[in-house]
């Protein structure tokens, strides 16, 4: 532990790995969608089980192209930022917002149909868990220790004059 980093080395390494893993997941999802010309969020949005009118509006012909482009762009940018360790706090906020939209489209609330899921959930699902992981990344930014932001941190060690 040091004054500039109150976390132990093990804690810092664990948080860096969390950041890298979440970043990889976002980047992978963005790349897959980008390279699948027929991919669209339209089906997911139209099958929303909560806030149906809002998600139907996002899936409308006038909006879907922009929604698809923004979704892919956000996934790619969040993933790249988290992996490189640059603007990770902003990337965490954008990622949380995106994941909360996914969560609200198909929330695992009691009495609601499960919709498009990979398993059986009750209130908590993988989108909410990953949003919580991004909150941890936001609260404990590691990019000034391991990432591109380290290049922009002013040294607290006084320089010697010749």
From TrEMBL:
Q: Where in the cell is it found?
A: Cell membrane
What Pfam families does this protein map onto? DoxX (PF07681)
Q: Which organism is it from?
A: Algoriphagus hitonicola
Q: Which residues form a coiled coil?
A: none
| The name this protein goes by in its record | Thiosulfate dehydrogenase [quinone] large subunit
Per the record, what is one GO cellular component?
plasma membrane
TM region(s), chain numbering: 12-31, 66-84, 91-109, 121-140
As for membrane topology, the entry says: Multi-pass membrane protein
Query: Is Membrane there in the keyword field?
Result: yes
Similarity-based family? Belongs to the DoxX family.
**Keyword list, A-Z:** Cell membrane, Membrane, Transmembrane, Transmembrane helix
């Amino acid at each position: 532990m040091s004054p500039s980093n109150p976390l132990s080395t093990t804690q810092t390494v664990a948080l860096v790995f969390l950041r890298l893993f979440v970043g990889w997941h976002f980047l992978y999802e963005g790349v897959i969608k980008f390279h699948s010309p027929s991919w669209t969020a339209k089906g997911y949005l139209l099958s929303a089980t909560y806030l149906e009118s809002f998600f139907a509006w996002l899936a409308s012909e006038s909006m879907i192209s922009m929604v698809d482009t923004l979704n892919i762009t956000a996934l790619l940018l969040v993933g790249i930022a988290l992996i490189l360790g640059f603007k990770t706090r902003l990337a965490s906020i954008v990622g949380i917002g995106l994941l909360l939209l996914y969560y609200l489209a198909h929330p695992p609330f009691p009495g609601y149909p499960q919709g498009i899921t990979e398993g059986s959930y009750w209130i908590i699902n993988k989108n909410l868990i990953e949003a919580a992981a991004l909150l941890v990344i936001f609260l404990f930014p590691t990019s000034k220790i391991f990432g591109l932001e380290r290049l922009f941190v002013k040294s607290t060690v006084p320089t010697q004059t010749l």
